[in-house]
Backbone:
């Protein structure tokens, strides 16, 4: 297809805005919304960078799809900007699993693209993470190593990280430096808030943003690898996890 020079220039300006800011108001990108040719060009530019363009409400987002996308939030960047100074890879693994579990709590199965709940209490999120980790601990080392190879998650490091977190002072007012399971979950919550994926609605309750729902519906549930991860997480409903989760204080 042959494009006019002005179309290419206009499309690249729109792409540049999204590349720099990651988002823009729909009113500021009228050509992207109204012109099929320019929209197609912008989408092509994004695709070349392993990104996807999402129109959500009044906003347009450019979201990286692969870890090798130059716009992907790297593990090092997460460590530097969102985790304590002494954070290691195990903190990243635990963070990812906590996020997967949170997303899973809003959908009754990995096959359902519509959220089945409106909000969740942070304490309930903590309880579910604890229950899932306790369920994973019931597997022997050989099984854990098999799961690590299959899902590319270091499950042993995740177990060790969760066990190392102090869950004794969950009722005590938390500070930014307190090392506890609740403070870790709150740290993950702050990361998700900065990424505009969750928002607090009061009473220690959070909900998914429209941006998060769009990513989950249009991308997250479509990847076979992610589906397998979600199916595995949903399957972790062991009795030991249920019993121990009931003892965690919010």
Residues:
């Amino acid at each position: 297809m042959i494009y006019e020079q002005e179309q290419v220039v206009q499309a690249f300006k729109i792409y540049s805005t999204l590349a720099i800011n990651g988002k823009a108001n729909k009113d500021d990108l009228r050509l992207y919304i109204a012109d099929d040719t320019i929209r197609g060009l912008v989408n092509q530019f994004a695709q070349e960078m392993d990104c996807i363009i999402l129109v959500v409400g009044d906003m347009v987002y450019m979201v990286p799809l692969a870890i090798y996308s130059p716009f992907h939030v790297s593990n090092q960047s997460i460590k530097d900007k969102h985790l304590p100074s002494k954070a290691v890879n195990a903190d990243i693994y635990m963070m990812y699993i906590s996020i997967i579990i949170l997303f899973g709590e809003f959908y009754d199965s990995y096959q359902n693209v519509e959220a089945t709940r409106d909000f969740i209490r942070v304490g309930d999120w903590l309880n579910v993470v604890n229950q899932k980790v306790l369920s994973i601990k019931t597997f022997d080392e050989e099984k854990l190593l098999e799961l690590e190879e299959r899902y590319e998650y270091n499950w042993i490091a995740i177990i060790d990280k969760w066990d190392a977190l102090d869950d004794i002072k969950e009722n005590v007012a938390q500070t930014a430096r307190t090392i506890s399971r609740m403070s870790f979950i709150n740290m993950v919550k702050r990361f998700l808030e900065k990424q505009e994926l969750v928002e607090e609605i009061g009473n220690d309750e959070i909900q998914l943003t429209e941006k998060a729902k769009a990513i989950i519906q249009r991308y997250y549930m479509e990847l076979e690898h992610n589906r397998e991860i979600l199916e595995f997480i949903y399957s972790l409903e062991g009795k030991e996890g249920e019993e121990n989760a009931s003892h965690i204080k919010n």
